[in-house]
Every structure is written in C-alpha cells, then in structure tokens.
Amino acid sequence: MTGQQGNGTEPDTSQDAGAGRDDQIEALRRQVADLEDRWRRALADFDNLRKRVAGEAARQRSDERAAVAARWLPVLDNLELALQHAAADPGRIVPGVQAVHDQALSVLADLGFPRRADLNEPFDPALHEAVATQPHADAAPGTIVQVIRPGYGGADRPLRPASVVVAKGA
Prior knowledge:
alpha+beta; Hemagglutinin Ectodomain, Chain B; Nucleotide Exchange Factor Grpe, Chain A, domain 2; 2 domains; three-stranded mixed β-sheet; two-stranded antiparallel ribbon; 3 helices
C-alpha cells in the first residue's frame, strides 16, 4: 500500500494548493490594483471638485462686489451732479447733498447695514466704541449722550461700531 502512494496514481495536493494560493494572490493583487485605481480616481475627483468650488466662490465674490459697486453708482452720479451745479447756485447744493446723503443711507440699509440711532441708548461694547465719558445730569450712567461717529449694521452683524460719549456717574 505504501507503494501505491508513491506510484503517482494519487493526485499531488501540494501542487494544487500552491496553484490555488497563486490564484488567490493574483486575485488579491487585482483587487488591490482596482482599489488603488478607484482611490486615485476619487482623489482626482475631489481635487477637481475643490478647484471648481474655489473658482465658483471667487466668481461669486466678484459678482457680489460688482453688485454692491453698481448700487453705489447712482450715489456717485448724484454727487457729481451736485458738484457741477455748485458753482451755478451754491444755495441749492445743500439740499442736493442732503438728498445724496439720504440715498447713501438707503443703499446701506438695503445691503443690510442700516444706520443705528444710538443716542440715549445703553452703551454696548459690541456695538459702540466709547471715546469719552462725561457727567450728565439728565442721563443714567452708561447711557450714550453723544454720537461722534454713527454706527451701521445690527447687533447680529455690525459693519462699524458707533464712536460715542457715555454718561458717567457724578
């Protein structure tokens, strides 16, 4: 019986196992190559998306800047008209400049940055910049008694803080 095992009539399982392992290794190599290819494609797709989003953001910023500048063009046109007519009738320039001022305030308000009415309001360091304090008989301490430079925008999104004088206790 031992002679029959060595006579080659039985299949050699060591070669079959080696061939099967080689097939498995080759399948794993193909799978790794496929995964690497998919990973490289995903990286390229992500890089393309990043570049596209950056380009769109730059275009959007440019479009927004152009839209805001276009809103200011009528104000500039009216200032130029006021300057042209200033020599002809200096008395008429004040109402014209006041109208341009009102137009500029309207543009800021439409853009979401209205001028705030801070006089007699409590001082808020998020909205106000105190440039001085002074005793004031008619105002409680911490109340704004004079606006030096107006503030624009709301509490949620201030454009510029108001420079103010604040009442202090006696």
